Amino acid sequence: MARPAPKSKARRPSLKDPEWWTSIAVDLLDFKPASLAKNLSKLLKTDRPDIEKTLTRLYTDTFAACLRQWETDTTAATKAPKPTAKAFDLGAFHPHFPMRHPFFSDLLNRARQHMVKTSGNEATGQQIEDHIRFEFGRFFNLTRMANSQTYAAANAYIDLIRSGYDTPEGQVIAHTNTVLNALAHDPLPIDPDLTLWDLYVTPTARYWDTGTLDKANAQEAETVEYLIASLLKTLGNSTAPIIIHGQPGHGKSSSVRMLTHAIVTQERRTRAPQRTQVLFYEFKELGRLDRNELQILAERTPFLRDVNFFHGQRTVLILDGMDERQITDGSDIALKEFVRHLFTLADHMNRRDDTRLNLVFTGHSQFVRHVQSAFSTAYHLYEIQDFTSGQIESWLQKYCVLKQVSPALTAKDFEAKHLNDLISQPILLTITAMMLVDAQGQALLNNLSAESEGAISRGVIYRTIITWTYLKKWQHHPSREALPDESAYTHFLRMIAFVLFREGQESVKTSTLIEALKANNELYDLEVIRNKDDETIKDLCCHVAVSFFFKGLEDNVFAFIHKSIKDYLTVEAWFVLLQDITGTFDARRLDRSCEAMAGDLYFLFGHQAIVLEDHLEFLEDLIAVRKDEARRLFAPLTALFKAVQNHQYLLKHGGAQGPNPVLTEVNLLTSLLHLLTMILHGYSDEEQQVIFPDGYPKFFDESDDFHRFISLLQTTGIDRFYNERFDFRHFDFSDANLAGADLGDVNLAGANLQGANLRLANLQWADLEGADLEGADLEGANLQDAYLEGANLRLANLLQAYLAGANLQGAELDEDVQLPEGIGDTMSIDRTNSGKTQLITPDDLKQRLEWMAQIQSFGRRLADRQVRLGDLILEGREELEERA
To answer: Percent helix, strand, coil in the chain (nearest 5)?
Structure first.
């Protein structure tokens, strides 16, 4: 297996000099207001020789300081190059990027050649070059400030140039510089030896122009081979906002950072007459969103005072990570309004002839769909795809050169470990590559592949990664005795992840984390913090942060290196906590047992619910691995789910989880149902027969219970029930009253719907394969494109049912049934395009927003009344259905 090679490191290409290309990209000296130019002219007229001389000396002295730190003989390396000081090119000097100057390059080449010659090792030359590039900027400022009289002429010149940054234009350039500088310099949290610039591979994407979707020439999704080039083209041709979405770890954030660099360097290359202002924000760093959108942005970029900032300018405003701005106040209204107002702002700005404002948003796919109703104008949609085999090979080539891995890794090395299904995700490709070139990591992966007959699941890989981190990092830390074994170490990480989940954030202040851990330690059972003061716990948190699972403790803030790491540990935390909570369940004392569990389960899921795309795959993997333990959760969670449907514990336990009791109840119900369905589908048919003698799982006992459940979910958000994507295969809904229910695209394959009232129900795209609909009332129901293959429709009332495009192949129908013209029992549909992929029309959106406002008002009224929510929803159901 590949190991780091001892041979010398290959020299990086010239473009790798980040100070050079950054300064070229945003050279402040191209911007000289009249007053600044006048002052520079006056200074140079009188002091130019001194400025050139002292700048030359400043560079030489700074270089010597860097080499002294290296503890190397500096004589040959620091000799000032010829021609002499008068040749110092003032026009090439940049105060924030002194390494751009040719004088620095000359000094660096001399130092490198000297080191290679004296050591006989090319690698030593590369090492000293890396050291000087890393340290020069810091020593440059330290040297000139510590000896201000010696470098007085140079300092006067530098300070005058820097004053240009006091202008809004200069501040924008400085803001963009921070993004570019981080791109080139900031080490990847997962591997400090690398930067994003080192490893980035442009992903493939699918692209839609939503402005043409409802027209006769509607554009189908097209494949975009080079995402950055396509984004540049779209920015050049259109002012419509751009939405970039994809799965976690697919490179959304990386791509918009690379886009920033591409915009700036393209304009330098083409000598664009007007520069684009690039503003970059992370959603997680924004404050409260229930304020004016410009006020929110100005907190991060004070130079953006009002709309006049955009007038007469070309601006690209990037907002990264919508999915990292989770809802913590019980409502997503503020978030959607913030996005909607930005769309409106851009639309208004782009009506001016002299102004152009492009918005770019990123977020994971489900979250983008969740906030789609806030996209009030046409937009461009990009969905980042998995890495192709070619992109994987390109990434591996870069990685192996930078890490000196020989022989180089190839895709076959991952296939041999049954990892080929996972390496198309960049985050997992990075982590597994690191493990394959590490002895301990390689041993763990060898054990996994030996135990696995097929592909290794994503969850199993994450569990292995955590074990590797414990062995690789924590076991070598001086404070390892604080968490003496892997169990204690992992448990501590799980509880930190759960606190982040419950806070609805991707990072948390250390003080908040400590407060949360101490306040709920009776549930968390962290022996390591019991009876400890805050300072001791903070020290432990700092020590644990050496693990690459954390970005560190910058500003006393904890954050995992990637959202998916936090999500996996959160799922493990749920599993452990659920085992503790349900441990005393006694089916003979059902009411008492449910009462004992209720408070802790409201705490687990009342404030934040399980999120489909973040957690379900990990849950499925964990349940599959720990099947016996998961099955022991089934009976207690089923009992509590039925009790919560009737809101027995909401008044006692729900109030502490947030201001909206309806949302609290929905969060808990949806989370419990997801857990139950995943555990259930892990049973064999024979095992299900033992649990459910009638052959069908029944979680909704009364005829109105399921409809009431759907209606309750819909009070908390448009399409909440649809977005949860529940798996109701083989469920028992016999005799259920589902008149008018929206069951579009729901998985009801094999379900028992005998005698169900489905009048006027929406079952468009529903999967009813093999479902038992005998005697069901489907009068007026929408069954367009429904999948009814093999379904039992005997004695079903299909009067005025809409069956266009439905697949009735093999369905059992009464002999005298009259199907609508053109519908036959062999008609089939193309299921590849099923699902609610259509955009909401403006009229539909307006109507649904009005309905949502009424529903939310209804929820607020409930919050002030001590009543049973289910009864009120039953009473108001007909009115709600009419509005829906």
So the answer is: 55, 10, 35
